[in-house]
Amino acid sequence: MTDTEPALIALDWGTSGQRAWLLGRDGGILDARDTGRGLLTTTEDVDLRDPRAKAAAYESAFRQACGDWLTACPGLPALASGMVGSAQGWADSGYRTVPAPLDFPSLVPVFHRDGVLHLVPGLRIPSGDDPGDVIRGEETQLAGALETLAHPGGSLTVVLPGTHSKWVRVEEGVVTGFTTAMTGELYGLLTAHGILARTAADPVADDAAFSRGLAAGRRSRGLATEAFGARPLVLDGVLAPESLPDYLSGVLIADEVSHLLHASETHVVLCGARELCRRYAAALAERGVEATVLSEEITARGLWRIATAAGLLEDRLERTLKP
Amino acid sequence: MTDTEPALIALDWGTSGQRAWLLGRDGGILDARDTGRGLLTTTEDVDLRDPRAKAAAYESAFRQACGDWLTACPGLPALASGMVGSAQGWADSGYRTVPAPLDFPSLVPVFHRDGVLHLVPGLRIPSGDDPGDVIRGEETQLAGALETLAHPGGSLTVVLPGTHSKWVRVEEGVVTGFTTAMTGELYGLLTAHGILARTAADPVADDAAFSRGLAAGRRSRGLATEAFGARPLVLDGVLAPESLPDYLSGVLIADEVSHLLHASETHVVLCGARELCRRYAAALAERGVEATVLSEEITARGLWRIATAAGLLEDRLERTLKP
């Protein structure tokens, strides 16, 4: 067997997107696809109360993405993480309760015409007096981050910025807690609807406006006040309407960092879209915190790590050896 | 002349509503109308770039609201505050720069077939290093509040909760500063769009959920985190989906109060919709701050006070004495 022999189909299958990788025996990427066929597209015309129709829709989308790989290598193990494992997904893969290590011995299988697709469970903090929280998909990025980092031991804060940013605490490879901030969603709502959307023009990148927003977001007057402040700045001609989105981005990110960064932190790991990580790194640098930035592509590494730890590849090996 | 003789037409004319009062010589309310005909309705089919068409639309809406009063008492002075005095309104009445006392000697007149309607200017803090801010309409509520309160002297914080809540500092009758929090707008956006809207059911009043939200909003994890927390509470069955809006209301109001209440404050004046004032009073009470609640109806008193201070009624008196 060589490194170019396919060993695993790995999918990052979320609400609005689907990425698929064909991985070799050393975990290297042999082929990659970004189909954009997330849960919303997959189930667009499907009655979700009909389990057979739902399963057929997911199987069809899965085959469209990876059917040729399976045809070329029948019985190839397949693993997916993300919302495909939620109650609205192909099957509910459940959650592991935190504290939890980042291996997943009990993956949830869904059976299809050509074999089995394994689903990665999410992580969960149950609600008590405080609200709980869940993660789905990010656990795989975390597994990939630990695989990628040179020193995975000790204590680590991993920040995954996005629609719902996650701040994850990892101690000796075990997730001990996490917090969600709906910063990206607030940015989306405020730039799509309401008075700031009406005040803004089509966005133009403006680092100075972003920095100015960061400074405002670090003040103590609160998000609801500092976000609104973008409007008088535009009305007074101090901020260009097309720079309002970057100003607002600064306000929101600084507010998130102010609240969720622990005072003792000197270093965090950032994992997400490049431009977003750049913004968070800038907000962190202003507080004297260094950031190691990992690309979202570590999801493929995470899927590889989880598949290896769960023995998915050994099954395949055994089947190959004893036909 | 008796108290029942009309002396002033007073209008609170905002973006989405229009209320009109016929006031007697002592400022008492002789008649009141809530037409709902705000700026949006008034200018619905009007090309706002055409000044004549715009003026005709406003005049028509004004006559629909008060035409019979004017017919009965020709030449009756009329005064309006709110967005009718904005750039999108009948005419731009401008702003007084803070610090500013709450009398308005230079009202802006708009002339119509039956006479003159005077417009109240707003208040403005120009943007410098910090974002500035503007008030339009609330200056009239403030004037009404000072008229209503037994001890208008000294220092006073007046909170006007709403879509854009205003926290106003008044010292010896002079507005020395104010701050806006877009709390109501955030509540509207989060309950109309996005993940919390999808998690919530049709709202049912739930004071316990509101109190729980207040407690969450007082924590230091930030608005973007505590608002999101409503979702796991619902998913975990701890919060009913129809109670999510009241929980979120608690989170947002507590966050606003946490940021904008000065530590030294022991008493504030609340002015706004009754149910909203009740919520803010509860949030303030938890911090040991007492609130005096004034109804929104003080707008009529504010218009009366401004008209009196500007000598509008004397004009009328003179005209009556020298026909």
Automatic annotation (TrEMBL), chains A, B:
Superkingdom of the organism of origin: Bacteria
Gene Ontology molecular function: 2-dehydro-3-deoxygalactonokinase activity
EC class name: transferase
Keywords for the protein's UniProt record, in alphabetical order: Transferase
One Pfam family hit: DGOK
EC number(s) from the headed UniProt entry: 2.7.1.58
Protein name: 2-dehydro-3-deoxygalactonokinase
Organism per entry: Amycolatopsis roodepoortensis
